Amino acid sequence: MEERKGRKKKVLLMGKSGSGKSSMRSIVFSNYVAKDTRRLGATIDVEHSHVRFLGNLTLNLWDCGGQDAFMENYLATQRDHVFRNVEVLIYVFDVESREFERDLITYSSCIEALRDNSSNARIFCLIHKMDLVQTELRERLFNERRDVLESRSLGLSITCFQTSIWDETLYKAWAGIVYTLIPNLPQLETHLHRFASIADAEEVILFERTTFLVISHVTRSSIPNPFPDRFEKISNIVKQFKQSCSKMASNFTAFELRAAGFSAFIDVLTPNTYILVVMPAGAAESATTLMNIAVARKHFEKLERDSSVRGVEKLERDSSVKGVETGGGGAGGVGEKDGIYGN
Amino acid sequence: MPLSSSSSSSSEQFSCRPPPTPPYNPIPINSKMDCSASSQSTKKNSYSLERFLQEPASPSPRTAHKSGYRPHSSMSRSQALQSPTSSVGTYPGLGQASNRRPRLLLMGQRRSGKSSISSVVFHKMPPTETLFLESTTRIQKDPIQLVPIFVLERGFIANIWLLHSSFMDFQVWDFPGQLNFLDPTFDFDHIFGELGALIWVIDAQDEYLEPLSNLHTTIIAIQRFYPAINIEVFVHKVDGLSDEYKLDTQRDIMQRTQDELSDNGLDNVQVSYHLTSIYDHSIFEAFSKVIQKLIPQLGTLENLLNVLCSNSGIEKAFLFDVLSKIYIATDSSPVDMQSYEICSDYIDVIVDVSEIYGYDRKPQGQVSSPTSEAPSETQQEEEEATLEASSIIRLQNGMVLYLREINKYLALICLMRKDSIERQGLVDFNVQVFQNALQRVFEVGR
Fold first, then answer.
1. How many domains does chain B contain in total?
2. Please, what are the domains in chain A?
3. pLDDT tens-digit profile of B148-206?
4. Which key words are in the record (chain B) (predicted)?
């Protein structure tokens, strides 16, 4: 129980009024479409929301209204209350802001308050509304802003992302943020690697179920994919499609695509995750891959349940990733092969 | 199995019956012209649609040529202006060899949204990004789809984009100011001679009386020489308008047009109206309707789809043009917007995912070869796979979306219940039969 408590991570979402904090939050966590965010009004004071992420990780999201009066309040009377025990500070800058200098002053005071109260917090700066900048100028502007921000962060290390709710950059930033918070990540990645090699998959991506943020990915293809930003692109694509499914009062459960050069499968893995498996052409029948996912499902569920128990070794011992051998067998060279079904 | 056999026999029936042939003989396509007129990629499939889709009825361009309506000087001038690299041979193709595909022309006032429409529908540009589109005064170079042709006419600059989309020619023609039809240098035949449909875009959020009078002038002028052209009016930018206001606007535009035309003694002109917006699916829906009118085989296609649906437990089937997400045929059950939307979004997913993972893996051959032990079989499979992609999405409410690539441009998308897909072998087989039938329909059409 105590550990459960410990896994509640306080995330502060701050920035000037109208910079897009609540819009972002609604899209990532509440399944809004970008268009719907027009309906959102101003956030008054702090809106708390608890987001269960991956089942055992709860994000305690503090969406702090950004009007000057509130800001002063946070920095003065509520200073301790707001800035204590913070795991992550996400500071949002409106790229179109006319008073960037003033934003910076507020930013610096927030950083100062954060340094005093929770010195270990990670800081992420999002340069938001990048869609309003012409494509050619985006990179340069972002770099400029990043340099300025780094110089104003009192020596603390910060991570900057350029974002827009209208494209996949939003998912890139949030996946990057959430990635740092997942507790049993190395373990998860080991198992994902093993699954990928047993299934002989070209690429395996693990997504969180509700947000469809990328948790982890394994790439085994020798030819580099020309899209380095494909993970967040897929998040975006699937999210869009989920949205259109919801118009039919439904949700999608499984996706399968067999095309010329590859086949792709998206399926539910655990109650909290989806998995995308990309197979090279002609490597295996669809049924084989689906069977592989089904077999891996139990294992990953167990992994998720056990993740509260410390000790990677224990899990390593327990783990018996079962898989259906695909292709000629050369690829599935993993020690434990109990429960392998031949084709 | 009995189900499937009945499907095959009945579809054969359909394909044996010759589809409605166009009232005139198609002009033999000069092979050279053909190659240059179509983009490089269109020749890969032996049965691509474009060859067989002819305009239902447009006056033979040859005779129009002889009438001398096209002054020689203007022709050579415009030819001289086109860039030599992008479209050698394409331009003459406009007048002669290109009566293979339905040709659409998009016209309207400045800033009515023509470029945005073509970007969204044919270019997959997100609607929000159309804000950045500059007014069409310069040529947008696009190596694949848009072949820009710059025509300088007296008094105005027209910018024509020729879009070699999957199975239709598509032009955006943007002209600021009044079009003077009496101007002898105006190359009338060149623009309207081959046209299947004229799409006139009216900005519903703007003052529309002046554009409307331009529309009337244009209709009257066209009707004289080319009565076969379908006139389609897009009452555009209706997002943001209330439903009532939308309909009022449409009614007003219809009324005014009707009055104006009957004043000029043109009572029987068919003008269709569509409420459109690039921010939802209405623009695609409208285009679908426009295109469907121009496909002579539509009846046959619908029948085939009906047979397929009834024999495979499919609730709704669409034949989509993948690139533009326009459906060129559907079965005869009523189309509800929802299923169209989900199918169209489904295409987005397929196209996007394919784009991400469909990169060239050729060098990988050495890597994967040791794993594939039965080379002949797998190779055959691979070859089959290159022909058609297939996909299934299962939804929580028990519905299943089934997609099958029919050829390079067309995809069949079916909506069905979960129990129907349990007999997936049957569905696959029936779709295969449907695909063959479709191919034969188009072969007969040739």
1. 2
2. 7-180 (3.40.50.300), 185-305 (3.30.450.190)
3. 333 323 223 334 444 444 455 566 665 554 555 555 555 666 667 667 788 888 888 88
4. GTP-binding, Hydrolase, Membrane, Nucleotide-binding
Judgement on whether residues B133 and B217 belong to the same structural domain of the protein:
yes
CB contact under 8 A, B279 and A35: yes
Query: From A326, which residue of chain B is nearest by alpha-carbon distance?
Result: B371
Say whether residue B353 is in contact with chain A using an 8 A CB cutoff: yes
Average pLDDT across chain B, whole number: 66
SS3 B236: strand
Mutate to test the interface with B, among A165, A170, A248 (most CBs of B within 10 A): A248
Q: Closest Cα of chain B to A267: distance in Å?
A: 10
Domain that holds residue B126: 92-139+175-292
Closest CA in chain B for residue A238: B349
B389 with A260: Cβ contact below 8 A: yes
Q: Are residues B209 and B96 in the same domain?
A: yes
Of the partner residues B346, B358, B396, the one whose CB lies closest to the CB of residue A260: B358
Q: Under a CB-based contact definition with an 8 Å cutoff, are residues A163 and A173 in contact? A: yes
Q: Which stretch of DSSP H or E encloses residue B160? A: strand B156-164
Q: Report pLDDT digits (tens) over A89-139.
A: 999 999 888 888 888 999 999 998 888 888 888 899 999 998 888 888 889
- How far is it, in rounded angstroms, from Cα A148 to Cα A138? 16
The answer to whether position B159 is within a domain reads: no
- Say if the Cβ atoms of A282 and B381 lie within 8 Å: yes
3-class state of residue A35 by DSSP: helix
Examine the pLDDT at A39 and tell me if it is beyond 60: yes
Contact indicator for B401, B305 with CB cutoff of 8 Å: no
Contact between residue B99 and residue B54 where contact means Cβ atoms under 8 Å apart: yes
Domain boundary residue, one of B264, B292, B320: B292
B window 394-413, beta carbon within 8 A of A: 394-397, 399
Count Cβ atoms below 10 Å from residue B231 Cβ, excluding itself: 20
Is the ipTM, as predicted for this complex, more than 0.85? no
